[in-house]
Amino acid sequence: MSFSEELRQANAGHWEAATKHRFVEEIFAGTVPDDVMRRYLTQDYQFIDRFVALLGMAIATADRFDSRVRFAQFAAMITSDENTYFLRAFDALSVAEAERHHPVLSAPTAAFLALMQEAAATNDYANCLAVLTVAEGLYLDWADRPDTTLPPAFIHAEWITLHNNDGFRSFVTWLRGELDRIGAVSEASRRESAAYFFGRAVALERDFFDHIYA
Ligand SMILES: Cc1ncc(C[n+]2csc(CCO)c2C)c(N)n1
């Protein structure tokens, strides 16, 4: 079994609780209450800074140029002005300026930011890859439901299509392969460390979905 698949299966309980979460069912049905959507998006918007920093560490610690380029292209894509989803969603949900930029961080958000920082601070590509593979791969897994029709409101529909389009799918496929490749050339202790970061990230993804309903 590949390393990425081994890690996913080792965390199957939290992984499936997240990918089949009430939020996921409701977003496909277009029935996520506005309050829940507001909490979700304001907290999620706080991820981008640490996430890009983690991508930067992946660029710096990768063992080859092709991998750096792949991450650099992804970083350019997510930091460009093209994706205005959050801003349009905040407008549609009447989220005030302060709440867009300086919300009180919830415990799962703070824990996720800390985990990204901790993975980056190890200076180890395998740990960076593990957290990135969860943050991207788990999102592809919940969003990828080929035979489903999209809900009518853009705040729901676009959050799905951001995470199941062909570009995103091919990036996740590459990420998983990259984690497999690094796993295969790493010693057991390095694989264990990556597995630890992977497991914490999966548990936090589940907590994040849970807490927006609490
Ligand atoms: C809690 C949480 N986990 C993962 C993602 C997915 N994700 C995080 S950064 C990024 C790249 C830019 O879209 C993607 C897809 C999310 N949004 N929220």
TrEMBL record:
<keyword id="KW-0378">Hydrolase</keyword>
<comment type="pathway">
    <text>Cofactor biosynthesis; thiamine diphosphate biosynthesis.</text>
</comment>
<feature type="domain" description="Thiaminase-2/PQQC">
    <location>
        <begin position="12"/>
        <end position="212"/>
    </location>
</feature>
<dbReference type="InterPro" id="IPR050967">
    <property type="entry name" value="Thiamine_Salvage_TenA"/>
</dbReference>
<protein>
    <recommendedName>
        <fullName>Aminopyrimidine aminohydrolase</fullName>
        <ecNumber>3.5.99.2</ecNumber>
    </recommendedName>
</protein>
<dbReference type="InterPro" id="IPR016084">
    <property type="entry name" value="Haem_Oase-like_multi-hlx"/>
</dbReference>
<dbReference type="InterPro" id="IPR004305">
    <property type="entry name" value="Thiaminase-2/PQQC"/>
</dbReference>
<comment type="function">
    <text>Catalyzes an amino-pyrimidine hydrolysis reaction at the C5' of the pyrimidine moiety of thiamine compounds, a reaction that is part of a thiamine salvage pathway. Thus, catalyzes the conversion of 4-amino-5-aminomethyl-2-methylpyrimidine to 4-amino-5-hydroxymethyl-2-methylpyrimidine (HMP).</text>
</comment>
<comment type="similarity">
    <text>Belongs to the TenA family.</text>
</comment>
<keyword id="KW-0784">Thiamine biosynthesis</keyword>
<dbReference type="InterPro" id="IPR026285">
    <property type="entry name" value="TenA_E"/>
</dbReference>
<dbReference type="Pfam" id="PF03070">
    <property type="entry name" value="TENA_THI-4"/>
</dbReference>
